[in-house]
Amino acid sequence: AGPYWANLVDQSAISLGVVCFALLEAVSIVWVYGVRRFKNDIRSMIGDKWVDHPTFWWWKLQWCFVTPTILVSIILVNCIDWTYPTYNGPYPIWALYIFWGIITISVAPIPVVMLYTAITSSGSFRERLDIMFSPQNSWGPILRSDRDHAWECHEQHGTTMGEKLYLHPLTNEEDQNIAKTVL
Questions:
Q1: Relative to the CA of 127, which of 12, 21, 113, 117 has its CA 20 to 30 Å away?
Q2: What is the pTM for the complete model shown?
Q3: How far is CA 146 from CA 28, 37, 91, 164, in A?
């Protein structure tokens, strides 16, 4: 029975669910969070020299168009060319329910969390959307010096990264302790 289960999980978990998740991730980073914000996040990590280099447009093109197009193409080809999973013959119908369950479980947390946030947030529908699609105040580097640098990068280039306020102000000693554990 082991090879049958391994094959069923292999055919479902590696195919459509992961590609759908990758597409949602690519779209959310570039089109919801914003390619300018993402670029400034990278700028704060590796510096202006690389991000302002003339060849950096290649990455923006990849993030915005090439990657989503390829992922949508993979999903379409999988849907058009889809066949029931088999292993030494067809699986029983209950195994197909497990097959689709595995795919659903890998992608379901995204809309479930969005729905939960929409229901539990207060305000108008527009305000709830803003909450769901805006970075949280705690988003960004944890060390104060890194956070200040990232904030300055975003501010200089016309984007935001959430609030500059520190939710839990740290002393320099605490910053150093965090740096030791992270690094």
A1: 21
A2: 0.74
A3: 24, 16, 53, 12
